[in-house]
Design goal:
Layout lengths: L6 H15 L12 E6 L10 H19 L3 E3 L3 E2 L4 H10 L3 H18 L10 E2 L3 H16 L3 E11 L4 E3 L4 E2 L2 E2 L7 E10 L5 H6 L9 H11 L1 E11 L5 E6 L10 E4 L4 H6 L3 H8 L10 E9 L6 E7 L10 E4 L5 H10 L7 E2 L1 H5 L25 E2 L10 H15 L2 E7 L4 E2 L1 E2 L9 E4 L3 E4 L27 H4 E3 L6 E4 L3 E2 L8 H4 L9 H4 L5 H6 L4 E5 L5 H15 L12 E4 L2 E3 L2 E2 L10 H8 L1 H10 L7 E2 L2 H20 L1 H6 L15 H24 L2 H16 L6 H18 L4 H10 L16 H4 L3 E8 L2 E9 L4 H10 L1 H7 L4 E7 L3 E6 L1
Parallel strand pairs: 1-2, 1-26, 3-4, 12-14, 26-27, 28-30, 31-34
Antiparallel strand pairs: 5-6, 5-9, 7-8, 9-19, 10-11, 10-13, 10-18, 12-15, 13-14, 16-17, 20-25, 21-22, 21-24, 23-24, 28-29, 31-32, 33-34
Helix pairs in contact: 1-25, 2-19, 3-4, 18-19, 19-20, 20-23, 22-23, 22-24, 23-24, 24-25
The chain binds one RNA strand of 87 nucleotides through helix 7, strand 11, strand 15, helix 10 and strand 30.
Length: 834
RNA sequence: GCCCGAGUGGCGGAAUUGGUAGACGCAAGGGACUUAAAAUCCCUCGCGGGAAACCGCGUGCCGGUUCGAGUCCGGCCUCGGGCACCA
C-alpha cells in the first residue's frame, strides 16, 4: 500500500477490473426484488459538464446503495443522439451529423467511465441508430392506425433561424428554446399526436405522483390546464349563422357587451368581406404586446337578454383554445376591459363586491355605471350579481351553476370542459431526426409505410448548405419511392420527428437489453421483462424537463399500455429533480465563462473527489454553489481516510473481519466503547439520510465525524483493535456508494477480497448505538441556564430531582416560586418560575 | 398579473418536524513541525460586553400562540423559479 493517496493509480485500476468482470451487468431474474434507477440520458454535445457530473453522481449513489441493499438494480445509460446541434455542426464545419454525433458519444462515454459510474453498458441505447428509431416509426404507425397520429394544417410556432416548427413547450418567452430567436406564427401542414385524448387521465393521475416533487406535479397540472365552463351560441343578426363561444364565467353573461372572433375563425372570413382588412388583422394574430380589433359591421344577439351587441375580430383571441370565439365582458375581464377602452365600447358591471351591495353601492338598474363608483379596472373577483335579470342578487359562484343550468334547459348552451394542453406537433423540417414513415402517392394520397419496410432509413448522402429547408428535400434517392399501395410514383415525407419522441420511451427500450424488443410479437402477451422492470423506481434529472419530457413520457407510456405492450401507466414512480450547478452567482455556461471542466477536475483530484464534493456541498434538489476550495476539502477528507488505513495497515490486515460481531464491551477501553458507539450511530445516520430524502450531504458529514474520531483513536487492547477494524471497515462500506474507487482500494488494503461494491450494506445495533449518558439541558423560563451529564434512561421524576438539585438552578430560582416543571425525556428540563 | 418556493455566521450548509441554533466543510486568525515553503497536525472562530466565570442580543421585518418558536398562525419586505392573452 502506498503511503499517499493517489487517485490516478487507484481509479483506473478499479475501473478496469469492474469492466473486465462486467460487474454492473444486470440480469433479468424475477425471483429478485428489482430496482430501476435511471438518470436522464445526455445529448452528446461533445463533452460532459458539471451538471452531468452531479446528475450521474446522484444516480450512481442510489444505484450502488440499492445494490448493497440486495436489490437487482437496473442502471442503464444511453444517448439522446438526434438533434439540431449535429446538423449545425455539419453546416458550419462540414462534418456529417452522424460522424460528429458518434465521435462525441465515444468521448463522453469515456468521461462517464472515468467517473466510475456503475452502468450496465450492454443496454446502451443510441437514438440516432436505425435499431432504435425504427421503433419510433413503429409506434408512429400504430398511432396512425389508432387515430392518435394525424395530419392537419394549423398555425404553428416557427423559428426563422432554425427553420423549423416548435412545440408550445419549446417556446420560452416568445423565443426559441434552442437559439433564442423570436418565434413567429406560420400556417403549415403538420403531423400531430393526440395527447389531448389523454388530457383527463394525465391530469387525474397527477394526484398519484406522490414520489414527485410537488412543484413538478403542479407544473404538469397547470400545463394541462383543465377548466370548466359553458359553450353558448350567439345568433348573428340577419343570418342563420351563430357564433359559439366558450366561457368559464357564465355568471357574467349579462355583462357581455361585444363578441370577438379569432382571426382564423371560419366566420371571420364570412363576416368580413374585405380581404385586405382581414389579412391585416390576421397578420397581427398572436402578437402579444398589443390588442388589435376589427369591427365586422355585424351584430349578434345575447341569448339571455336578447341584446344586440357588436361582433369584432380580435388578434388576441386564440383559435386553438375553446371555440375560437369569446363573449367580452369588459367589466369583469381585464383583457376585455383594455379592448373596450381602446375601441370605446360599453362596459357594464354585473358583479358587485359583496360589501358594496351591503352599503347600497350598486350600479343603477339598466345603466352600465355603478352609482358613486366608476371602474378603473375589471372587477374579476367573486361578488353578487346585479343587472342580471332574475339572477340579480345571487352570489357569483352559485350563479355560475344556475345560469349554466338555465342555458342547458333552454337549449342555448352546454356545459363544457376545456384544456390548455394542445395536441403535440411532432413534424420538424430537419434532417437529423427520425423520418416519419409515410409517403405521398399521386393516386392514393397519404400512405403509411408498411411495418415490414421499417426502418425508413435516414440517407447519409445529403448536402448541408444551411440554406432553405431540410436537406432531405434535395435527396432524390430518398424522396422518390414507390407507393406501397398501388406501386405508382410516390414521394416520401421529408419531415422528421421531434427528438422528444426519442426520449419519450427510451426507459422502456432499456428493459430489453441488447435483445431486439420485437414489440410486434410482444403485442400478444405483455413482455415479462417490461413487467418486471417498469416503472422506473427512481428517476433523476434536471427540473428544466418538468413539463416537456416528463409529460410526453407519461403520454407515450399510456399509449404503449393501450397497445397492450405493458401494464404500466405511470413511467416514473419517484422523481428527483436536482438543482443547477452555480458558480460566481450564475449557472455555469460558456458565455458566462464560469465553467469548471470535469476532465480537469478528474485529472487533478480524481473522480471520487469530484463526486464527493458535488454530493456534499448541497442536498441534491437544491442549487449547488461551486467552490474550488470545497473540492480541496473533499480531497483532504479522502486523504485522511487513506492515511487512517495506512497508519493502521498492520493491525487492520492482521485480524479477521469482525464487522458483524459486537465484541464484549467490558473488554473495551472507554475510548473503544465510544468509537464502537459512534460507528453504529454513523451506520444508522447514513442509512436514514439516504433512505429518507437522499440527503447525501448530511450522510457524508456524519462519515467525516466518524473518521475524525477514529483518527484520534489509539487502541489499547485486542478488543480495541477489533473496534478499530470494525470502524474502518464500516466507514469503507458506507463510503462505497459515494466514492467507490478508494473504497475498493482500501477494502483490499485491509485484507478483504474484492469487490466492496458487491458487499452487503452494514447494519447497526440499536443497543450499541445507544448513548450511555446524555447532556441534560436546564432551562429557567425557557432560557438555557445550565447543562448536566446524566445517565441514560432516567425517569421524569429522577430528572426533575436532579435538575432542581443543581446549584445553578438554585441561583436562578432563589426568591422565586416554582410554578411548573416540564421534562422532555432525553433532552431538557424547563423550570417555570414567577 | 397569476401560481409555487426560499430567506439561518464571512461563505456552502446542519438542526430528532415545537425542545441546547450554527453539525460537517470552506475561508480567516494563532500555534507546532521545517533552514524555508508546501503538505500535515493542534487551538480559536455568530454579534456585543467582560481578565475570566459569565451576561445580554441573535435564524428577513412586525405581531400572535406556547413553559418553550429557525420550526406553528396572521400581516409585510426581499430574492429565486414556473406560467403568461387559455376567456
Amino acid at each position: 500500500m502506498d503511503e499517499r493517496y493517489d487517485p490516478k493509480k487507484v481509479e483506473p485500476k478499479w475501473q478496469k477490473q469492474w469492466a473486465e468482470k462486467n460487474l454492473y451487468k444486470t440480469r433479468f431474474d424475477e425471483s429478485l426484488k428489482k430496482f430501476y434507477c435511471l438518470e436522464m440520458f445526455p445529448y452528446p454535445s461533445g463533452k460532459i459538464h458539471m451538471g452531468h457530473v452531479r446528475n450521474y453522481a446522484i444516480g450512481d449513489v442510489i444505484a450502488r446503495y440499492k445494490r448493497m441493499r440486495g436489490h437487482n438494480v437496473l442502471h442503464p445509460m444511453g444517448w439522446d443522439a438526434f438533434g439540431l446541434p449535429a446538423e449545425n455542426a455539419a453546416i458550419k464545419h462540414g462534418v456529417h451529423p452522424s460522424k460528429w454525433t458518434y465521435e462525441n458519444i465515444a468521448y463522453m462515454k469515456g468521461q462517464l467511465n472515468k467517473l466510475g459510474l456503475s452502468y450496465d453498458w450492454d443496454r446502451e441505447v443510441t437514438t440516432c441508430s436505425p435499431e432504435y428509431y425504427r421503433w419510433n416509426q413503429w409506434f408512429f404507425l400504430r398511432m396512425l392506425e389508432k387515430g392518435i397520429a394525424y395530419r392537419k394544417s394549423s398555425y404553428v410556432n416557427w423559428c426563422p433561424s432554425c427553420e423549423t416548427v416548435l412545440a408550445n413547450e419549446q417556446v420560452i418567452d416568445t423565443r426559441c428554446w434552442r437559439c433564442d430567436s423570436v418565434v413567429v406564427q406560420k400556417e403549415l401542414f403538420q403531423w400531430f399526436l393526440r395527447i389531448t385524448q389523454y388530457a383527463d387521465e394525465l391530469l387525474a393521475a397527477c394526484d398519484g405522483l406522490t414520489g414527485w416533487p410537488e412543484k413538478v406535479v403542479l407544473m404538469q397540472k397547470n400545463w394541462i390546464g383543465k377548466s370548466y365552463g359553458v359553450e353558448v351560441d350567439f345568433r348573428i343578426e340577419g343570418s342563420d349563422e351563430h357564433i359559439r363561444i366558450f366561457t368559464t364565467r357564465p355568471d357574467t353573461l349579462f355583462g357581455a357587451t361585444f363578441v370577438c372572433l379569432s382571426p382564423p375563425h371560419p366566420l371571420s372570413a364570412l363576416l368580413v368581406p374585405d380581404r385586405v382588412e382581414l389579412e391585416a388583422i390576421t397578420s397581427q394574430y398572436g402578437k402579444v404586446d398589443e390588442k388589435i380589433g376589427l369591427f365586422t359591421g355585424r351584430y349578434c344577439i345575447n341569448p339571455v337578454n336578447g341584446e344586440k351587441i357588436p361582433v369584432y375580430i380580435a388578434n388576441f383571441v386564440l383559435m386553438e383554445y375553446g371555440t375560437g370565439a369569446i363573449m367580452s365582458v369588459p367589466a369583469h375581464d381585464q383583457r376585455d376591459f383594455d379592448f373596450a377602452k381602446e375601441y370605446d365600447l360599453s362596459i357594464r358591471q354585473v358583479i358587485a363586491p359583496e360589501e358594496n351591495v351591503g352599503a347600497g353601492l350598486v350600479p343603477a338598474q339598466g345603466s352600465g355605471q355603478p352609482q358613486g363608483l366608476s371602474l378603473h379596472a375589471a372587477f374579476e373577483d367573486e361578488g353578487v350579481l346585479v343587472n342580471s335579470g332574475s339572477f340579480s342578487g345571487m352570489r357569483s359562484d352559485a350563479a355560475r351553476e344556475e345560469i349554466a343550468k338555465y342555458l342547458e334547459a333552454k337549449g342555448l348552451g352546454k356545459k363544457m370542459v376545456n384544456f390548455k394542453l394542445r395536441d403535440w406537433g411532432i413534424s420538424r423540417q430537419r434532417y437529423w431526426g427520425t423520418p416519419i414513415p409515410v409517403v405521398y402517392c399521386e393516386k392514393c394520397g397519404i400512405v403509411a409505410v408498411p411495418g415490414k419496410d421499417l426502418p425508413v432509413i435516414l440517407p447519409e448522402d445529403v448536402r448541408f448548405t444551411g440554406k432553405g429547408g431540410s436537406p432531405l428535400l434535395d435527396s432524390t434517392s430518398f424522396l422518390e419511392t414507390a407507393c406501397p399501395g398501388c406501386g405508382g410514383k410516390a414521394r416520401r415525407e421529408t419531415d422528421t420527428m421531434d427528438t422528444f419522441v426519442d426520449s419519450s420511451w427510451y426507459f422502456i427500450r432499456y428493459c430489453f437489453g441488447k435483445d431486439e424488443p420485437g414489440l410486434d410479437a410482444k403485442m400478444k402477451s405483455m413482455s415479462r421483462e417490461l413487467g418486471y422492470w417498469m416503472p422506473v423506481d427512481q428517476y433523476v434529472g434536471g427540473v428544466e424537463h418538468a413539463v416537456l419530457h416528463l409529460l410526453y413520457s407519461r403520454f407515450f407510456t399510456r399509449v404503449i399500455r393501450d397497445l397492450g405492450i405493458t401494464g404500466c401507466s405511470e413511467p416514473f414512480s419517484n422523481l428527483l429533480t436536482q438543482g443547477m450547478v452555480i458558480k460566481d452567482g450564475a449557472k455555469m455556461s460558456k458565455s458566462k465563462g464560469n465553467v469548471v471542466d470535469p476532465d480537469y477536475l478528474i485529472d487533478r483530484y480524481g473522480s471520487d473527489t469530484s463526486r464527493l464534493f458535488s454530493l456534499f456541498a448541497a442536498p441534491p434538489e437544491k442549487d449547488l454553489d461551486w467552490s474550488d476550495k470545497g473540492v480541496e476539502g473533499a480531497y483532504r477528507f479522502l486523504s485522511r481516510v487513506w492515511n487512517l488505513v495506512f497508519k493502521n495497515r498492520g493491525v487492520l490486515k492482521g485480524t479477521g473481519t469482525i464487522a458483524a460481531r459486537g465484541p464484549e464491551t467490558a473488554a473495551l477501553s472507554e475510548e473503544g466503547r465510544r468509537i464502537l458507539r459512534k460507528t453504529h450511530q454513523t451506520i444508522r445516520k447514513v442509512t436514514s439520510d439516504i433512505e429518507k430524502e437522499y440527503h447525501f450531504n448530511t450522510a457524508i458529514a456524519a462519515l467525516m465525524e466518524l473518521v475524525n474520531e477514529v483518527t484520534g483513536f489509539e487502541p489499547r487492547s485486542e478488543a480495541d483493535i477489533e473496534v478499530l477494524k470494525s470502524a474502518v471497515e464500516n466507514t469503507l462500506l458506507l463510503l462505497a456508494p459515494f466514492t467507490p474507487h478508494i473504497a475498493e482500494e482500501l477494502w483490499e488494503a485491509t485484507g478483504n477480497r474484492p469487490f466492496i461494491s458487491g458487499r452487503q450494506w452494514p447494519a447497526w445495533d440499536e443497543g450499541l448505538a445507544k448513548d450511555e449518558e446524555i447532556e441534560l439541558v436546564i432551562q429557567i423560563n425557557g432560557k438555557l441556564r445550565g447543562k448536566l451529564m446524566v445517565p441514560f434512561g432516567l425517569s421524569d421524576e429522577e430528572i426533575k430531582k436532579l435538575a432542581l438539585g443543581d446549584g445553578k438552578t438554585a441561583e436562578w430560582t432563589s426568591g422565586k416560586s416554582i410554578r411548573k416543571v416540564i421534562v422532555v425525556r432525553g433532552r431538557l428540563v424547563n423550570i417555570v418560575v414567577g
